[in-house]
Amino acid sequence: MTSSATDPARPLPRPAPSRPAYLVLGGASLSHFINDMTQSLFLASYPLFKGGFSLSFAQIGLLTLTFQVTASLLQPLVGRYTDRHPLPYSLPFGMASSLSGLLTLAFASNYAMLLAGAVLLGMGSSIFHPETARLARLAGRGAHGLAQSLFQIGGNLGTAIGPVLIAFFVLPHGRPALAWFAITALIGVAVMSALGRWYADHLRARKAAGPVAAPEQHPPALVRRVMTVLVLLIMSKFFYIASITSYYIFYLMTRFGISEHAAQMDLFVFLAGMAVGTMIGGPVGDRIGRKRVIWVSILGTLPFTLALPYVPLSATVALSGIVGLILASAFPAIVVYGQELMPGRVGTVSGLFFGLAFGIGGLGAAALGLLADRIGIVAVYHICAFLPAMGLLAVFLPDLDGKRAARA
């Protein structure tokens, strides 16, 4: 019998280097920081838009819906296409679209231009996330949870710093000051161009090395069932996050009578907690399994969200940080779990999950805006407190890590 080691008809999979490409992961994380910072500047500018254009909560929700649905509809399509036809040099074009959106928002003269700026930001995200998530997985070289966390931590830090930048740089000088942050987007274009070259070189090297063994596929019925559960978990997570990113400032100002500047800083606590949670979720999932992280991070948030609407200001801010930390640890684990459930479809899974995050957040923001106009912003948070209870659905997720270890 001819061994597989000498059988030319059965090429062996190439061994992956043991250490992740940290320089590439750092570049991907920095780019994610810049990309999501521009989005966070958009979300944190809502009080400026509301006052400058006399917008209702429903119109604020429509802004979020426009941005996030644009991203959510395009991301899975981009991811599916690039699974078959990778586009390394599409990365700087995504950042350039975000840059254009930021400039449009800075100099908008009416509500329609605000919506146009939201569309450009959404297009930038739709191009950025699927391909950069694939690049991060390649650069992780087997440490997929760590790579996903390093990639996502940049985005969460960028999201967290947005309210601080608005409070200290934009509020004192007005909405046109947003244009200054186009400089960071230009830096992002340069970084993404360099990452595109690394990605292209990597693809050429893989093609030259020959084919690899096809990854083992899971039964289609299992994939459909598990993907449904993951989508519902993402829905509960990002619906709640939408209530914070879009309306938490108004909630604090209404319930506690604090200034907009102080509310922006309090929002930073929640966003900073999310950044820390994102960094924790991926590596912990590598060690103890993705399912355990998903289970704890979503359902474990419930006691804190239930308490948040009933406590004083200082406790509200502290609880928001805890909620952000626990809740955010789920997403790196969910993304890697989905990639392992559907091997060979990294772009499709990444585009679908990031797209769902944007789309569900947008729909949530629009629905909550309409609800806030009817029952008040404070009452909205009493309702949203129950959303993490959907974490109970994690009981239906199979233990992919355990099955993989058993096969090994």
Automatic annotation (TrEMBL):
<feature type="transmembrane region" description="Helical">
    <location>
        <begin position="111"/>
        <end position="129"/>
    </location>
</feature>
<feature type="domain" description="Major facilitator superfamily (MFS) profile">
    <location>
        <begin position="24"/>
        <end position="403"/>
    </location>
</feature>
<keyword id="KW-0472">Membrane</keyword>
<protein>
    <submittedName>
        <fullName>Fosmidomycin resistance protein</fullName>
    </submittedName>
</protein>
<dbReference type="GO" id="GO:0022857">
    <property type="term" value="F:transmembrane transporter activity"/>
</dbReference>
<dbReference type="InterPro" id="IPR020846">
    <property type="entry name" value="MFS_dom"/>
</dbReference>
<feature type="transmembrane region" description="Helical">
    <location>
        <begin position="52"/>
        <end position="74"/>
    </location>
</feature>
<feature type="transmembrane region" description="Helical">
    <location>
        <begin position="293"/>
        <end position="311"/>
    </location>
</feature>
<feature type="transmembrane region" description="Helical">
    <location>
        <begin position="226"/>
        <end position="250"/>
    </location>
</feature>
<feature type="transmembrane region" description="Helical">
    <location>
        <begin position="349"/>
        <end position="372"/>
    </location>
</feature>
<dbReference type="Pfam" id="PF07690">
    <property type="entry name" value="MFS_1"/>
</dbReference>
<dbReference type="GO" id="GO:0005886">
    <property type="term" value="C:plasma membrane"/>
</dbReference>
<feature type="transmembrane region" description="Helical">
    <location>
        <begin position="177"/>
        <end position="200"/>
    </location>
</feature>
<feature type="transmembrane region" description="Helical">
    <location>
        <begin position="378"/>
        <end position="397"/>
    </location>
</feature>
<keyword id="KW-0812">Transmembrane</keyword>
<feature type="transmembrane region" description="Helical">
    <location>
        <begin position="317"/>
        <end position="337"/>
    </location>
</feature>
<keyword id="KW-1133">Transmembrane helix</keyword>
<feature type="transmembrane region" description="Helical">
    <location>
        <begin position="150"/>
        <end position="171"/>
    </location>
</feature>
<dbReference type="InterPro" id="IPR036259">
    <property type="entry name" value="MFS_trans_sf"/>
</dbReference>
<feature type="transmembrane region" description="Helical">
    <location>
        <begin position="262"/>
        <end position="281"/>
    </location>
</feature>
<dbReference type="InterPro" id="IPR011701">
    <property type="entry name" value="MFS"/>
</dbReference>
